């Protein structure tokens, strides 16, 4: 039995991609952890943009749009909107860590997590671990 996850978590593109892709090797883990989530879920508009880009092909777009609609409708999910200030903070982190392979979206995610006091991410991306967070889908 998987324990209930009561902390607030950050949902990365990795997680949503796994949920929408039954053939993805992480799909079973993402699908299993989802019903155990009792805290709030945070994500960002930049994650939504990455997800929409990955699922832009017509056969997959409808499923992606249904998920995006759910993200914005569910009161337990907060989609942090884009802002110049958040973008600039993410860009500053991106600029200041040339030793890491972190994407700009990763850096923005790390800023959101720090600001919200979140330590765990729904991701298998090792970059989150490099930044000091817990990747729940590893």
Outline the structure in words.
By secondary structure, this protein is α/β, with parallel strands linked by helices. The protein has a single domain (10-22, 38-135), classed as 5'-nuclease (Rossmann fold), CATH 3.40.50.1010. Helix content is 52%, strand content 12%. The protein has helices at 13-20, 27-33, 45-54, 58-73, 84-96, 104-116, 126-130, and strands at residues 9-11, 41-44, 77-80, 120-122, 134-135. Strands 3-2-1-4-5 form a five-stranded parallel beta sheet, with helices on both faces. The radius of gyration is 14 Å and the shape is globular.
Residue stretches low in confidence (pLDDT < 50, at least 5 long) are none
What would CATH call the class? Alpha Beta
Indicate the proportion of strand residues. 5-15%
General shape: globular
CA radius of gyration: 14 Å
The N- and C-terminal alpha carbons lie at a distance of 17 Å
Task: Give the number of domains.
Answer: 1
Order of the strands making up the biggest sheet: 3-2-1-4-5
The percentage helix is 40-55%
Give the number of DSSP strands: 5
Number of distinct helices: 7
CATH architecture: 3-Layer(aba) Sandwich
Mean of pLDDT:
95
CATH topology: Rossmann fold
Which structural class is indicated by helix and strand composition?
A: alpha/beta
CATH level-4 homologous superfamily: 5'-nuclease
Largest sheet: 5 strands, parallel
């Amino acid at each position: 039995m998987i324990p209930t996850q009561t902390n607030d978590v950050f949902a990365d593109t990795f997680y949503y991609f796994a949920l929408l892709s039954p053939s993805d090797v992480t799909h079973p883990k993402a699908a299993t952890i989802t019903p155990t989530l009792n805290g709030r879920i945070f994500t960002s508009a930049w994650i939504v943009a990455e997800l929409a880009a990955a699922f832009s092909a017509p056969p997959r777009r409808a499923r992606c749009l249904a998920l995006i609609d759910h993200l914005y409708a569910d009161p337990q999910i907060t989609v942090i909107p884009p802002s110049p200030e958040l973008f600039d903070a993410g860009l500053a982190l991106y600029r200041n860590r040339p030793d890491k392979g972190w994407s700009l979206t990763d850096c923005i995610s790390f800023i959101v997590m720090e600001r919200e006091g979140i330590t765990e991410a729904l991701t298998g991306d090792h970059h989150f671990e490099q930044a000091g967070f817990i990747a729940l889908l590893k």
